[in-house]
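Q: Joint fold for the lines below.
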Amino acid sequence: MSDAIAKTAQQAGTSAVQRCIVPACAALFAIRQPIYVCPRCGGPLEIEIPLEPLQAVADLRERWRARAASHDPRDRSGVWRYRELLPFDDDAPVVTLFEGNTPLYDAPRAAKYAGLAALRLKHQGCNPTASFKDTGMTTAVTQAKLLGARTVVCASTGNTAASLAAFAARAELQCAILLPQGQISPAKLAQSMDYGAVVCEIAGNFDDCMRLISELADVPSIYIANSVNPFRIEGQKTVAFELLEQCGWRVPDHLVVPGGNMGNSAALGKGFDEMRRLGLIDRLPKISIVQAEGSAPLAHLFAGLKSSEIAADAAFPDEIAPVANPRTLATAIKIGAPVSWKKALRAVLRTRGSIITVSEPEIADAKAIIGRDGIGCEPASATTVAGIRKLVSAGKIRADESVVAVLTGHVLKDPDYASHYHRGTLSFESLTAEGAAKSVPIVGAFRNAPEKVAASKAAILKSLESRR
Ligand code: F0G
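A: Joint structure:
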């Protein structure tokens, strides 16, 4: 640790601490100690916010709502608006792009497709860099500033990189991102280049990039901003608070999220849990995670759990079997060895949710039907609606229950995918029984290809008539 980092670490005034989540260890560490995993046992770390002082505050909800109308930069942020529950002091050097404050939409067509009476979509793609990552990056980069880091780094399937690059630019920090070469949507890559990051294209997949990141963790001037970092989770958990506010503090029956590296599901689980422990809600939504079939290590693990293990709180295995060669066109979640799987599994077990997989054609059609509600999202986000449809038909979600799906990224994050789907040129790689790769075309149910129309009023009206 450099002298500057050690000094700032000692000066922290907040009473929050970092705690190892492994029950047998549960070691505590100072809030400004620059660590990412438990130095004692290697387990994941979580920030523990003292909730008792807040239990005495009667008007938390009103206070948060009032801030939404203020022009203080921290109040304009949908994350820092909830700062009582963030591990920072009032004078923290907040790095914000006014993230959060994202819409909760009704989606009647997607609801009907999924077999529900109603469905709401929390669109995290409406963040400044167009993905949910911004809500966690504001807190992680603020912590990087406090620790005196010079360079922030992450491994990424594209969105984390774009978000970190933007917040690093705001904070005037150097940013380096490790990306699996040729496996990132060009739109996401372009964002990182535009925000001035050092873009390292690695010959390997996301999991290889993540391994390199853990090797960089001991360089004193470097700060790691992947979701293994518990300060990312602190920002992302506030999405649960904002969602509850938008629901008038009526807890939805189900919350469904895509699963990749598992930071998002872990964060939402923590957010709802804190609200319940504060007494602001009296029950938890069932949190379910949906993975793409070819990149589904946690769904495989979940399917192998016995029902007694599913019922028990935090009774989870020590290891997860990684998927060696993850496959999916939803490149954001093409991940074989998720870092935050323990926290995510704990959230699902605590709330009695599910972890399931969906196929490539299911993701593609779900994405298109979300589009028909006028709400574009990227493929990874559409796993939610595809997953809800499966959970409804399996009887795990009733048609009349209240369901919220979290859309994690904007449609323009991956315009090539949308274009290929609608033109009928989308295909994915599948494995034969012998293990050989073969290309399988996706024939979308909601294809909407452009047509060539003559430059005349009559031709346009004829085209409209034929599509009524
Ligand atoms: N949806 C999108 C659009 C994502 O970019 C990601 C993750 C996920 C879902 C999965 O979220 O990892 O918290 O379970 N993207 C990371 C990245 C891995 O590098 O941008 P998770």
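Q: Anything notable?
A: Confidence is low (pLDDT under 50) at residues 1-10. The pocket of F0G is lined by residues 131, 156-160, 227, 258-265, 332-333, 378, 380-381, 408-409 (CB under 6 Å).
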